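Support request from a user on the community tier.

User writes: "When I paste my structure tokens into the form, the page sometimes reloads and wipes my input. The last time it worked, I copied everything first. Here is what I submitted, just in case something in the input itself triggers the reload:"
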């Protein structure tokens, strides 16, 4: 306990001395936080913050030191999170490397793969994207058709991925390919592919929200070293599902990095507050309170799940409950914000709206995708019914 108190004091001193002032405000959009990668262009304070945190391994506080992680215990990592929250510090790095492929490789990657990829993820050098979905394989993911055929010490890949988030900004992709056409689930292999090679091309897809967060990815005759297979050839389905659990936890927690938690109340005071910002309308008060209570319960449940991961219990099918609940809660929150702000949340462009107001509409539209990405709500309900509740098929 005394050790933890000393760690807290050291951590606070170090953060105060090293965190750039610009990093002490909550991010307004996903781009206010560093996603790393070779193609990313970030302001100097963001890069400085990444560099000092990565040097200590604190971009991935609990990952082993031998791979560049912070080597902190669960309790120390919690102290670090708390001290960062007190200073309202932004995370130094986010992305699929830290949240998905890194934890997966630590679990099932071989030593060479861990040594090659984990330190680069910790330092934010490589940005990753996820090549699962295909034009004919979304909910029915095992129907994927991208072929990988062995040729010496390489595989040659041909096919197409779709809805690949940030493929245009990513350096590497983790993907599922078909290595056996005679069986469905048993013919899938999980691979790592450098995207900066001949045969990979990416076309962004524009959304109703105005953003273009995902792409079509075309893969034509791409040579991938056989050493980039994770796990066994034709054993990729089990690995794919393991990764989806990390992904679902991440999506369930969509709200965590992006916003100041008091924002809903601040906005309500601004748009529908009476004198001194008091919220007179009992219905508004009730709806805000319910969302905040539900969010708190969700946060505590996720924190419990994170702790059990840290003591060596990988996330199980219950992550589908988090994904379902977390994303629907986020939609309820966005919906309420739009209702509270009224006409001011209907802006798209031009005069009459502040920059913040323009994000309200876009965030509301973006939240619709939360219940689709990482497996739709209907698919989560199927998984919960079968694998959590044990109901028959
Ligand atoms: C914002 C966003 C980001 C994404 N990022 C990525 C990414 O980075 N990489 C990637 O690989 N993919 C990504 N995806 C794709 C996502 O995983 C798929 O969209 C999702 O799995 C659904 O597949 P689909 O779009 O083909 O819909 P479909 O599978 O065609 O489903 C259509 C509808 O039918 C329902 N349905 C289908 N099957 C069943 C069933 N068995 N029981 C009940 N209902 C069913 C679905 O719930 C849905 O409502 C992203 C999607 C979104 C929205």
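"...and here is what came back when it finally went through:"
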């Amino acid at each position: 306990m005394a050790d933890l108190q000393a760690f807290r004091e050291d951590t606070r001193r170090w953060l105060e001395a090293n965190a750039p002032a610009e990093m002490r405000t909550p991010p307004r959009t996903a781009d206010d936080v560093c996603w790393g990668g070779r193609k990313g262009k970030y302001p100097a304070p963001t890069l400085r913050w990444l560099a000092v945190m990565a040097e200590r391994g604190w971009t991935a506080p609990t990952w082993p030191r031998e791979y560049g992680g912070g080597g902190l215990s669960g309790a120390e990592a919690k102290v670090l999170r708390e001290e960062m929250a007190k200073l309202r510090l932004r995370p130094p790095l986010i992305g699929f490397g830290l949240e998905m492929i890194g934890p997966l490789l630590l679990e099932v990657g071989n030593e060479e793969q861990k040594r090659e990829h984990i330190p680069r993820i910790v330092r934010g050098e490589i940005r990753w994207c996820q090549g699962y979905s295909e034009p004919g394989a979304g909910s029915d993911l095992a129907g994927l058709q991208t072929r990988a055929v062995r040729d010496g010490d390489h595989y040659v890949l041909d096919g197409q991925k779709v809805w690949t988030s940030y493929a245009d900004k990513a350096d590497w992709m983790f993907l599922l390919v078909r290595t056996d056409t005679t069986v469905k689930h048993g013919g899938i292999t999980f691979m790592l592919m450098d995207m900066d090679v001949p045969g990979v091309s990416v076309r962004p897809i524009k959304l109703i929200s105005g953003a273009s967060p995902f792409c079509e990815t075309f893969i034509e005759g791409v040579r991938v070293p056989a050493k980039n297979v994770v796990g066994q050839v034709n054993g990729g389905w089990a690995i794919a599902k393991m990764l989806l659990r990390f992904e679902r936890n991440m999506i369930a927690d969509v709200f965590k990095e992006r916003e100041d938690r008091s924002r809903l109340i601040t906005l309500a005071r601004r748009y529908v507050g009476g004198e001194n910002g008091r919220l007179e309308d009992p219905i508004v008060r009730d709806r805000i309170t319910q969302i905040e209570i539900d969010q708190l319960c969700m946060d505590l449940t996720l924190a419990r799940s994170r702790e059990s991961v840290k003591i060596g219990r990988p996330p199980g099918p219950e992550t589908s409950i988090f994904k379902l609940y977390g994303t629907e809660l986020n939609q309820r929150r966005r919906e309420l914000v739009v209702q509270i702000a009224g006409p001011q949340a209907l802006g798209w462009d031009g005069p009459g709206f502040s920059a913040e107001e323009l994000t309200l509409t876009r965030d509301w539209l973006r939240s619709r995708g939360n219940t689709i990405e990482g497996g739709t709500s209907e698919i989560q309900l199927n998984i919960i019914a079968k694998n959590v509740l044990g109901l028959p098929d």
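Agent notes: The reload is a front-end session timeout and is unrelated to the input. The radius of gyration is 22 Å. The pocket of flavin-adenine dinucleotide is lined by residues 129-133, 138-139, 163-165, 214, 369, 372-373, 375-376, 378-379, 382 (CB under 6 Å). Escalated to web team.
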